[in-house]
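Posting this for the archive.
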Amino acid sequence: MKFWYLVAIFLLSTPSVTATAEEVAPAPSPSSGAETSATAAPENNKSSVPDDQAEKDKNLDYSEIEERSLLMHEGGKYHFDLAYSFKAFQNYDYDPSSTLVTKASKGGTVSFLYFPFIGSFGRFGLGPSLGAYYAKKDANLTGISPNFYTYGIKSIYELQYGVAQVLVPFIMFGWDQVKLKDYVLNGSAQLGTSVSGANYSSFYYGGGIALNLNRLESKVAAKALADTGIKKFYLTYTFQQRTDVSSSGAANFLGLRFEY
């Protein structure tokens, strides 16, 4: 009995070798801690990626494209032109008799030009052009109002020499086939007279000036360049003189030009 009593005292006095999982696990080293934080980082960044991208899109910087949009010869070889005139064909005589009846027409043209020659000497281009005009009814022109339709070829030479040139003068020359629809004269001497339309060739020449709008709104121009490929925007004024025997006369046009 005394022997078992001594064994019990010996066991109680010996330190326990049993350890919990927390006591057995080694302390994390500095390197393993870095790996742990690095592993956790993507999880933390996942939620912030969309917000960062949204912020980037919101504050998109077009500075590089903006600088490009101000340059001149950037490979823009195409022009799409829209032009409007409130006084076209103003000298055309609508009365086939000796009485002179003139009336200015309102309308516009659409042209698409290709520029095969671009260099330090300027730019030369040509392409098709379409037009449509109408004469407002008055005491002499009632019923069926005269309407002009044109189609032809237009050429243009732009005096564009400097980088980011603000004002670009140009000269032009072209040919149109002009078609005038049938109409009715209703003056005192031609009451209700129906007149057959006309179909004739008309050469014209002229010139004008284009304002480079990219210089005024470079950020908008840069965004347009990035989104649509439009390299230049121009506001244009054109003076045009026709040389046909019908004396169609001069016209002034205001327009908008897009360069691709």
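The domain at 65-259 is CATH 2.40.160.20 (Porin). The chain has one domain: 65-259.
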